[in-house]
Structure formats: structure tokens, C-alpha cells
Amino acid sequence: MTNPSDNTKDLVVTDLEEISFDGRSDSYCVCIVDIVDSTQIIAGISNSKKIVLYYSIFLNSMASIARGHHAKIIKNVGDSLVYYFPETSDVNTPLGFENVFGCARTMIGAHKVINAKLQEAKLPPVNYRISADYGKVEIAKSASSMVEDIFGPTVSICSKINVQASKNGLVIGGDLHRILTKLFPTILREYFFREVEGYSSGLRQSYPVYQVTSKLHPLEINPVSWPRKSAIELSSTCPNIMIVEDEADLIFTYKTMLSGEGWNIKCFTDSEEALEHYGEIYPYSYDLVILDIRMPKLNGLQLFYKLRAINRDVKIMFMSALDSTGELVSILPDVTDEDIIKKPVMQKELVGAIARRVR
To answer: How far is the C-alpha of 109 from the C-alpha of 92, rounded, in Å?
Structure first.
């Protein structure tokens, strides 16, 4: 006869092994993006399929942007997404921390695009908050899932301070701000940090929290003012194409390749200048915009969302040396395999790809 106490013991062991810690721990930047007032919003949607679509549009858009900035998605908890940046384990490498803030800026810049998709689906608009902090986390695995999870006070604090962010805004914890102050003054110069009401708990008394805003505010375009400049050198009789590529020698190469095609080509090596230019002309002046992926200041993904916020119908293609066609297609709305040109590109391929989009 089986001893009941033995069965109980077996069950306890099985439960303990569902979540296993292998001793891995490190310090990372952890982030959470969370929908504002989701319970109230969902209560007003009677169709269950519409509820699923609402969450799907938001969570998949946020996850796509996070992955595009080299973040690792951990999980979604209801209406929020938890992710962290593996590159931030090395505090001597600024790229990981630049990705943290670049990701948040892209998420905020994507607000109009995401709400346009929700509007098309006859769903209510979404607002969200982003929080980030830095500290040690423990990495765990589940026996029933291949996805890793992270635990620790950094995750908990990041969750607690999220409510202190403004709508479609970002807050960071004091530990992340301390690292930026000590190691990355260049990042500090790109943003305003305003201390808000601190977070208090049994572990962290009066823990400082900072509201973050970019000094490079997204352009708000007033249609009444178009064109604030004339149509500049843009033509109304032939296709107008903008190319944004930070390497001047490649710009020269592309202009040479396209010089005999009868297209009006305007090139920028500075992504912020390109955005400012686009915002100062009639937004339908360009038939096509071609973006490099990796660029300083605004990268191609960030610029994509900002251009779409100005003109949701703008046609955009990418040129990239990265083997990431599938990833880009999955993270960017209305982008297909044909919209991505792999570097290095031959003249015939470039001309053909552009011709398909502007004809």
C-alpha cells in the first residue's frame, strides 16, 4: 500500500522543480510598458475577439520595438510587457543604455501609429506608461516553458514606479539615474530628468524616481502651416525620393546609381535633419523614403515611426547590411520583404526595388 506521505513529498518536489534557478544572476536594465486604465477600456468592449485584437495590437507593437533595440522579452502580464537589455550588464558599454532610451523614445513616437491601427479596427485609443531601472536580477527557467524569467527587487521596483510615469511617458529609478550620472553624461545631455515623488517600501525608503523627457521633442505638424517652406526643390512632375544614410560615400554611390532614372533624389546624412525637413514641407511631397537602419541620433526604426506619425501613408523602404529581413517585417507595420534592400546593393537591384514602389 502506498504511503500518502510519500505522495505528498513527491508533489512538493515536483512543484519546486517547475521554477528552477541555476545560479545565474547579473545586473541589467529592466523595463515595463503598461496600458493606462486598461480595465475601464476593456469593460467598454463587448466582443471578446475585439478585446484580444486590442491587446494584440498593443503588445505586439511594443514587443517589436523592444526587440528592434536588442531587448529580450520576458513575458506579458495582463496589459503590460516586461523586457530587459542584456547589453547593459557591462556598464562600460554605452550602446546598451542608449538602446534603453532609444527604445522608450520609439515606443512613445509610435503612439499615433498604434492608435491609427486601433482606429482602423474600430477600437478605442491606447495610452501607456514606461518605467525602467537598473539592478541585479535572478534568471530562472520554467519546466513547462522554454522562456526565461527574471526575479528580484529591480523587477518589483520597476513595476511599482510605473504608475508615476505620465501618459505615454517614461520614468526611471534612482539606481539607473545614478549610473547615467556617473558613467554616461552624453545620455544625460540628451534628456531632461525631473525628480518626482519617490518610491517607498520596506526595502527602499524614499527611493528617487525621475520623469524623463527627450530634448528632441517629436515634431507636431500643423496642417494649416504647410508648406512653411516652398516645395523646395521637389518636383511635381517626377517621383521625389528621400534617402537617409549616415555614410557620405554611400550617399554619393546611391545618387550616382539613380542619376539617370528621372527621379528627384534628396539625401541626408543626419537623421534629425531629415525629420525636420520632412516636417517643414507638405507631407505628401515625397513618393518614397529610404532609410538606413543603423544611424546615430535617430536610427531607422525611430525615424520610421516619427515619419509615420506625420504622414501615416508615407511609403518607406529600408537598406541594411543586417541579416534581419524577417525580424524587420515582423516588427514594422505595412513593411514587406520587398521593402528591405540588402547591402551591398547593385544598381539594377536598387533601381528595380525603387521602381516597384514609385510607379
So the answer is: 28
Q: Is the pLDDT of residue 22 over 80?
A: no
CA 291 – CA 286 distance, rounded (Å): 13
**Mean pLDDT score of the chain, rounded to an integer?**
81
Q: For residues 253-291, b (16+ Cβ closer than 10 Å) or e, as one string?
A: bbeebbeebebbbbbbbebeebbebbbbbebebbbbbbb
Q: What is the pLDDT of residue 203?
A: 55
Specify whether the backbone of 29 is left (phi greater than 0), alpha (psi in -120 to 50) or beta: beta
Amino acid sitting at position 208: P
Do 25 and 136 form a contact (C-beta atoms < 8 A)? yes
Torsion of CA 289, 120, 329, 59, to 10 degrees: 120
- Per the CB < 8 A criterion, the answer to whether 65 and 166 are in contact is no
Residue 82's pLDDT band (cuts 50, 70, 90)? very high
Q: Which residue segments constitute the domains of the chain, with CATH numbers given?
A: 21-214 (3.30.70.1230), 223-358 (3.40.50.2300)
Residue pointed to by grid coordinates 544614410:
245
Q: Which residues are within 8 A (CB) of 278 and not within 5 positions of it... i.e. 6 or more apart?
A: 242, 286, 289, 307, 310
Strand-pairing partners, residue 31, are 83, 132
